[in-house]
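User: Predict structure, ligand zinc ion.
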Amino acid sequence: MARILGIESSCDETAAAVIEDGSNILSSVISSQIATHSRYGGVVPELASREHLRAIVPVVRLALEQAQTELSALSAIAVTQGPGLVGSLLVGITYAKALCMARGIPLISVNHIEGHIHAVASQNTIDYPALALVVSGGHTHLYEVREGFKYRLLGKTRDDAAGEAFDKVAKLLGFGYPGGPVIDVLAPHGNPEAVRFTLAKMKGNTLDFSFSGLKTAVLRWYEARDMTAEITARRELLASQHRPTLEEWLSVTPAATLDLLASFQRTVIEELLRRAVRAADDIAARSLIIAGGVACNSGLRAAAEASHLPYAVFFPAVGLSTDNAAMIAAAAFPKLARGEFADSTLKADASLTIG
Ligand code: KG4
Ligand code: ZN
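Assistant: Predicted complex:
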């Protein structure tokens, strides 16, 4: 029985988890900083590091306690090396190193994107080769995943990540941060055909993504209208109520704006799925893995299902889509088996890549 403690602090979640044998989640603790960042409409790096510093010790302690695991019972401690915010990554890495050194526990470094893939791979029986679409606030990447977790990057965003596009549109229209969950619940109340957006045409690698054109189109739509009253109403709602209900959002969002949100979300989903399906065909994929925060999106899940693809499509379980440490511990398991350890020279790498 190998138990790994995972530590994740790459962005705005401080998380720790204990996993047994690569898939059995004994505990998964996530301390979110959303309340700190939401009023700024995005993550403020300086505040993020400070919050991680505050949270790291209690979060790790709680994860061990809930898993009824002593440090001495751990086979390794896994930590996110990157990509992410360097000041945030440093908090997790420094703490993981200190625990490993003090207790003589092996250290394993994990790539955050690989973690998102393992959030799905560790909980399902995947046939390889698989195509992985990793869609979050920081990434929109397509990877070929072969047996033994060998990766090849097939395409990525040239500008914004898909989650970032959700967040920026939400911020522009006064829906706060993060934007994905709000747009997700409001989109079904609008007409997805109402606003026609042009799909991105990519020169060079046609498996790359671009969301800047879509973002600009939303900005033009916004500039052509006077939205002051509804945006003010939404900001007031957010200020009075940290997490407004669907009914409250609907009461401050006219039909035209709901149509915009529905059309925007439909376009993002179309951009994501058409490239993922093409890439999957290119590599004769036997499974499709969709991971990362945007994989929570119900429209994306429904569209993937409605496509009746000739291979199985896997999404993360609840709690494993957005940032968490269970996925970091899961990704470390094959590395433990291969004896791939890090040492005290491990450094944060804000733009770490895989494949
Ligand atoms: O994976 P994650 O927690 O952090 C990164 O690694 O970036 O993803 C966060 C992103 C945010 O941009 C958020 O708006 C988006 O995931 N997100 C969603 C949904 N839930 C979270 N996007 C669309 N629909 C959702 N339901
Ligand atoms: Zn992430």
